[in-house]
Specification:
By secondary structure, the chain is α/β, with parallel strands linked by helices. It has helices at 15-19, 28-44, 60-65, 70-94, 116-124, 142-153, 187-193, 200-209, 223-228; strands spanning 8-13, 47-52, 99-103, 112-113, 128-132, 157-162, 168-169, 181-182, 184-186, 213-217, 235-238.
């Protein structure tokens, strides 16, 4: 633990990150890489909680745009995050990492219900805990889930692992070649300028609880460990 800058972290993975270049479903190579990188943290003694999105399978917003009831579409998205979480759990345990999935919607046959004190106890026992099914409520993103769970378990930082960008830019770098990358930002910068870090609810929650956010690329092997060891990669969002 003397090497690691952070003792307890929340790792936020988008569903798209698990899809890799195929854009849909779960890419076996990507999920194996993520598991290997999480194992590196566990071997350091870092307590790791993971929040996984479901956009590689279903997006509630898309369902809503199709004319579905928004709440129903969002619940479908929560179920997609459970599928991703179970896949990640299986991959981690194949790598020798003891893992627990906790869901905000009870489905006891496949995972534990989310209980804050039990989640903290798992982390203290050096088990990786994966938080699935979002907050359990429609209209809230998995970014908000990451911010909420980080506050609840007293995590020191949220690591936002991206698959298509290596930090926060002034504009979309794939469209605007003049876009500049930020090394540091404040929460107010993100909210005021509408930067694509987290949605405003999640950003406000992080600001209220003073939880720093580090945005970086997951596509380069070993990046998660580099961030935890304190290397200056990506963009950090924090208070003044």
């Amino acid at each position: 633990m003397s090497e690691a800058k952070y003792r307890r972290i929340v790792l936020k993975l988008s569903g798209e990150a698990l899809a890799g270049e195929q854009g849909f479903g779960i890419n076996p190579t990507v999920i194996k890489s993520v598991s290997h990188q999480v194992k590196e943290l566990a071997d350091l003694g870092v307590e790791v909680a993971v929040v996984v999105g479901g956009g590689n399978i279903w997006r509630g917003k898309v369902g809503s745009e199709m004319g579905m009831d928004r709440a129903s579409a969002d619940y479908m998205g929560m179920l997609a995050t459970v599928m991703n979480s179970l896949a990640l759990q299986d991959s981690l345990e194949n790598a020798g990492v003891e893992t627990r999935v906790q869901t905000s919607i009870e489905m006891r046959q496949v995972a534990e219900p989310y209980i804050r004190r039990k989640a903290i106890r798992h982390l203290e026992k050096k088990r990786v805990v994966i938080f699935a099914a979002g907050t359990g409520n429609p209209y809230f993103s998995t970014d908000t889930t990451a911010a909420l769970r980080a506050a609840e378990i007293e995590a020191e930082v949220i690591l936002m692992a991206k698959n298509n960008v290596d930090g926060v830019y002034s504009a979309d770098p794939s469209i605007d070649r003049t876009a500049t990358k930020y090394e540091t930002l404040t929460y107010l910068d993100v909210l005021r300028e509408g930067l694509a870090v987290m949605d405003s609810t999640a950003s406000s929650l992080c600001m209220d609880n003073n939880i720093p956010i580090i945005v970086f690329s997951i596509m380069e092997e070993g990046n998660i460990k580099r961030v935890v060891l304190g290397e200056n990669i990506g963009t950090i969002v924090r208070g003044k």
